[in-house]
Design goal:
Layout (H helix, E strand, L loop, with lengths): L3 H19 L16 H6 L4 E7 L4 E7 L4 E6 L4 E6 L4 E7 L4 E7 L4 E6 L4 E6 L4 E7 L4 E7 L4 E6 L4 E6 L4 E7 L4 E7 L4 E6 L4 E6 L4 E7 L4 E7 L4 E6 L4 E6 L4 E7 L4 E7 L4 E6 L4 E6 L4 E7 L4 E7 L4 E6 L4 E6 L11 H28 L19
Antiparallel strand pairs: 1-28, 2-3, 3-4, 4-5, 6-7, 7-8, 8-9, 10-11, 11-12, 12-13, 14-15, 15-16, 16-17, 18-19, 19-20, 20-21, 22-23, 23-24, 24-25, 26-27, 27-28
Length: 396
C-alpha cells in the first residue's frame, strides 16, 4: 500500500513540475490585482532602458499614478488637458479637459480623486478616477504649480509659485482650509510619512520649507542648491531628494534631522524626481540633458543615465507594472522605462490556481484507484504456506 508520506512526496513533486512547465506567472511588487508579467518578460528586457514612447498632448509636464485603477495621469500644459494612460496596455485611453496650463498633478487615495494644478487660471481641477471626469474646480493662489497628498490628515498641498504660499485643500470637502507662507517661488512639494512633514522646494529662495502637517505651520527652512525644483521622499532610508536645477545636483535631506547630508551631481537642469519602491532607486529627470539619472538610494551614487525624449520634465513610478513614466515636454511624448526589480512577489493568477487544483485532484484520484486495486487483490487474505507433497520413490 502507498504510504501517506509517499503520497505527499508525489503531490509535492507534481506541483513543482507543474509550476515549471506551466510558466507560472509572477507579479512585480503586486497585491494580486495588478498586471501580471511572465518571467521571460522580466529577464528579456535590460534594466533601466526605454521600452516605449507614447504620444500624448502638447507640452506634457507632470505625471502621477492612480493605484485605484492602474492609470497614469499626464498634464499637457499647452493643450489644457490631462492624458490618461492605461498601465496594462500603455495606451492613451482618455484626454480630459482641465484648466489653463496644467502643471502639477497628484492622486488622493482617500477619495480616489486626481488633483491638477492649473497655473494659468489659479485653480485646481478635481478628476474622479472612476469616471475620468472633472467634478470640481477649486480656487487657490497665484500660479499653482506643485501638488502633493498628505495621508496623515487627508489634505492636498498646492504650491502657489507667484504668491509664495501653499494652499491646503481638505480632500473630504474640496475646500481650501489654509494658506501657508513659505519661501520665494515655491514649486515642488512632497510628503514624508515617517515624520508627517511636507517639504516645499522654493525655487527663488534656494531652500526647502518644512511644514508640519499636524499644525500646518513652517517649522524649518533648509538651504539646498540653486533653483530647487522637484521633491521626492524615499521611505527606504527616510531621505528627501531635491533637484537643484541651477546647480545640476540633487540635495539629499535626512528627514530625521532636516539637514542636507549629500549633494549628488546629475545631468543638466534636473527637474522631476521619483522613487522606485521595487529597487530602491531614485529617478531624476534632466531637462537640459534629455536624460534620466538613476541614483541608488543605498549609496546615493548615480548608477545609470538613460536617454529619453526632448526636454523631459515630470516623472512617476507605477508599482503595478514596475515602469517609470517620463513626460517629455519637447517631444509631446511619455517615455516608459523598464526598471530592475530586486524582489519578485510570486502570485498565481486565478486560472493557474484552478489548473493546479485540477491536477492535484487527478493525481489523488489516480493514487486512490491504485490503492483500491491493491486492496482488492488482498481481499481474501494472505495464503498459508503448505509443505509440498513428498515424492514417492519409484517401485522396483
Amino acid at each position: 500500500m502507498v504510504k501517506r508520506s509517499q503520497l505527499m512526496k508525489i503531490v509535492a513533486v507534481s506541483l513543482v513540475f507543474l509550476f515549471l512547465v506551466s510558466g507560472f506567472s509572477v507579479m512585480v511588487y503586486g497585491s494580486g490585482s495588478e498586471k501580471s508579467i511572465s518571467p521571460c518578460d522580466i529577464s528579456g528586457s535590460p534594466s533601466n532602458t526605454v521600452i516605449a514612447n507614447i504620444s500624448v498632448g502638447s507640452s506634457p509636464e507632470e505625471v502621477a499614478y492612480d493605484s485605484s485603477n492602474g492609470y497614469v495621469y499626464v498634464t499637457n500644459n499647452w493643450a489644457g488637458t490631462v492624458s490618461v494612460i492605461n498601465g496594462s496596455t500603455n495606451t492613451v485611453i482618455a484626454n480630459i479637459s482641465v484648466g489653463i496650463a496644467p502643471e502639477g498633478v497628484a492622486y488622493d487615495p482617500s477619495n480616489g480623486y486626481i488633483y491638477v494644478a492649473n497655473s494659468g487660471e489659479f485653480t485646481v481641477s478635481v478628476i474622479n478616477g472612476a469616471t475620468n471626469t472633472v467634478i470640481a474646480s477649486i480656487t487657490v493662489g497665484s500660479v499653482p504649480w506643485g501638488v502633493a497628498y498628505d495621508s496623515s490628515n487627508g489634505y492636498v498641498y498646492v504650491t502657489n509659485n507667484w504668491l509664495d504660499t501653499v494652499s491646503v485643500i481638505n480632500g473630504a470637502t474640496n475646500t481650501v482650509i489654509a494658506n501657508i507662507s513659505v519661501g520665494f517661488g515655491p514649486v515642488g512639494v512632497a510628503y514624508d510619512f515617517s515624520n508627517g512633514y511636507v517639504y516645499v522646494a522654493n525655487y527663488a529662495s534656494k531652500n526647502v520649507s518644512v511644514i508640519n502637517g499636524a499644525t500646518n505651520t513652517v517649522i524649518a527652512s533648509i538651504a539646498v542648491g540653486l533653483y530647487p525644483e522637484g521633491v521626492a521622499y524615499d521611505p527606504s532610508n527616510g531621505y528627501v531628494y531635491v533637484t537643484n536645477r541651477g546647480s545640476s545636483t540633487v540635495s539629499v535631506i535626512n528627514g530625521a534631522t532636516n539637514t542636507v547630508i549629500a549633494n549628488i551631481p546629475v545631468g543638466l537642469w534636473p527637474m522631476g524626481v521619483a522613487y522606485d519602491s521595487s529597487n530602491g532607486d531614485i529617478y531624476v529627470v534632466n531637462k537640459g540633458s534629455h536624460s534620466v539619472s538613476v541614483i541608488n538610494g543605498a549609496t546615493n551614487k548615480v548608477i545609470a543615465n538613460i536617454t529619453v525624449g526632448l526636454g523631459p520634465n515630470g516623472v512617476a513610478y507605477d508599482p503595478s507594472n514596475g515602469y517609470v513614466y517620463v513626460a517629455n515636454t519637447g517631444s509631446n511624448t511619455v517615455s516608459i522605462i523598464y526598471t530592475s526589480p530586486q524582489v519578485i512577489n510570486k502570485v498565481a493568477p486565478f486560472y493557474s490556481v484552478i489548473y493546479i487544483i485540477i491536477v492535484i485532484v487527478v493525481i489523488i484520484a489516480v493514487l486512490a484507484v491504485v490503492m483500491a486495486m491493491r486492496r482488492g487483490k488482498n481481499k481474501g487474505g494472505p495464503k498459508q504456506w503448505q509443505e509440498p507433497p513428498k515424492q514417492q520413490p519409484p517401485q522396483q
